[in-house]
Design goal:
The protein is 53% helix and 7% strand. By secondary structure, it is mainly alpha-helical. The chain has two domains: 68 residues; 181 residues, no CATH class. Strand 5 and strand 6 form a beta hairpin.
């Protein structure tokens, strides 16, 4: 693809975005008018919008007053960015998981509590916070979660790098499986839901979307389906296996091992 072809594709994409922006302008104004008819008021100063992909210069207005345009937006606990990167959302998950760990640190760091109870607290309270939304991450962001998990598991045991304790031994003592494996389980579980969803659903439409043009030169970014293919290869399943719910659930499920607690 030549440079002129790329420029033409970007121009077409910007026109496509502009048309949708005009439609969004009309819907936003109609939303504000309908709220006013029912005795409610839209706070225009607190209302924000975000554009994904190429940015446009025009702004969305309500009653002639422009709305604030942002580069990232937090929606249902996940951070959506204008450049569609997952790294900011990963950092948000790391910070949120540490906040949750600090809230229960009184239990996790109490030497009087057996480790198998601490493991239950970690697996039911801390780890789900770290994994929230990870099933939709296409990139390899596992290193950040792997690092925080080992810090969270080593700290209550009083272990440092000078102790030279292996990560596998620490996990066996807690009775937890690697968080990277739980991420793979979450992705495959979500893929199974997408396969069984209606053909007109948003998830199925996004999965089957085929964009025109060629990908840029160099190492391309890893897509969600690329990651799913690697996950299916790791657990030795095929896309056809997702049609069998029981078989798919059994193949993708990764159970935590029993904790090795001598005082239990």
């Amino acid at each position: 693809m030549s440079t002129s072809d790329v420029v033409n594709c970007l121009d077409v994409f910007r026109k496509y975005i502009l048309l949708h922006k005009i439609a969004l302008q009309t819907q936003t104004q109609a939303w504000k008018d309908r709220l006013s008819e029912n005795g409610m008021r839209l706070n225009i100063k607190k209302t924000e919008y975000l554009e994904c992909g190429p940015q446009t210069n025009s702004a969305i207005t309500i009653d002639g007053e422009p709305l604030t345009k942002v580069a990232q937006f937090k929606y249902l606990g996940s951070l959506v960015t204008s450049d569609c990167e997952t790294l900011p959302d990963t950092r948000l998950r790391v910070n949120t998981a540490w906040m949750k760990w600090c809230q229960v640190s009184g239990v996790l760091c109490d030497k009087r509590i057996p480790i198998y109870l601490k493991a239950k607290v970690y697996k039911s309270i801390v780890r789900p916070v770290a994994l929230y939304g990870s099933e939709c991450w296409p990139a390899t962001t596992k290193q950040a979660l792997h690092t925080i998990e080992m810090k969270m598991l080593r700290w209550p045991l009083g272990l440092t790098r000078l102790d030279r304790a292996r990560n596998d031994d620490v996990r066996k003592q807690w009775g937890v499986t690697p968080i990277t494996d739980k991420m793979r389980e979450a992705r495959l579980r979500w893929y199974g839901h997408v396969v069984h969803s209606d053909k007109n659903s948003i998830a199925k439409t996004a999965q089957q979307l085929d964009l025109e043009g060629n990908r840029p030169q160099g190492r391309p970014k890893k897509r969600w389906m690329d990651r799913i293919k690697d996950d299916m290869k790791a657990v030795n399943v095929t896309p056809e296996d997702a049609l069998d719910r029981k078989k798919w659930r059994k193949a993708c499920k990764i159970a935590d091992p029993a904790s090795r607690d001598i005082n239990r």
